[in-house]
Design brief:
Blueprint (H helix, E strand, L loop, with lengths): L4 E8 L12 E10 L2 E10 L5 E7 L4 E7 L2 E4 L6 E9 L5 E7 L4 E7 L2 E4 L10 E8 L5 E7 L7 E6 L5 E3 L9 E6 L5 E5 L8 E5 L1 E4 L1
Antiparallel strand pairs: 1-2, 3-4, 4-5, 5-6, 7-8, 8-9, 9-10, 11-12, 12-13, 13-14, 15-16, 16-17, 17-18
């Protein structure tokens, strides 16, 4: 069964006082974004221009990151040697970030801009093999994601911000050795996520550059 990616445009009721801080959905228009030739697609982010990124299955069954603009879906990894990819974030300048699955089964965070995919540096200073992924990007080009050791459990999972394609900052070293994940970043460069306590559910909020305990 074909399950295409859908975009809903919401129409909001007027006349609600500003202090109420609520919106009422009165109607929605659903647009089928299509796929890259396969049965399924998923949308993850949209920018102020209405351009969308996500992942879609190709005719050969592989999952490919896409950039959707003006009614056309583009494969952001068509010129790369990714065995699969997904696009997770897009900024004002239509720069796209996501994850490329390399042929050697190593995941690699990427930035896609002006039709060119660039893999982000994720090298460990001690030479350990690393996997990385990217989930969001700011208009200034900061990229949020994570890095982890390839042959290790999730204990060594590090929330990361890339300042450039080559320079990254590990956001937080947990005092208890817990892994951490980052989920989003705003235009001021503040990232949010969580640490994982193996004895309890996630209970910390990571807000870089400051950490807030909950």
């Amino acid at each position: 069964m074909r399950v295409p990616c859908l975009l809903a445009t919401l129409l909001l009721a007027a006349g609600v006082p500003a202090t109420a801080q609520r919106l009422i959905v009165t109607d929605a228009t659903v647009t089928d974004l299509g796929t890259l030739g396969g049965p399924n697609s998923w949308a993850y982010d949209i920018n102020v221009h209405g351009n969308i990124v996500g992942a879609a299955q190709a005719a050969d069954g592989t999952t490919r990151g896409f950039y959707y603009s003006a009614g056309t879906m583009y494969d952001v990894s068509y010129s790369s040697n990714c065995s699969w990819s997904e696009a997770r974030g897009i900024n004002y300048h239509n720069q796209v970030v996501g994850t490329c699955g390399k042929l050697n089964d190593v995941q690699h965070a990427f930035r896609w801009a002006n039709g060119v995919m660039s893999l982000l540096n994720h090298a460990d200073p001690n030479g350990w093999p690393i996997r990385s992924s990217a989930v969001a990007t700011t208009d200034s080009g900061l990229i949020l994601g994570s890095r982890k050791f390839v042959d290790d459990s999730n204990m060594n999972h590090f929330a990361t911000v890339w300042v450039t394609n080559d320079q990254f900052i590990q956001l937080r070293q947990s005092p208890y050795g817990w892994p951490n994940w980052a989920n989003d970043i705003n235009q001021s460069g503040v990232a949010v996520g969580y640490d994982k306590d193996w004895e309890r559910p996630p209970r910390w909020r990571l807000q870089w550059p400051n950490v807030i305990e909950e």
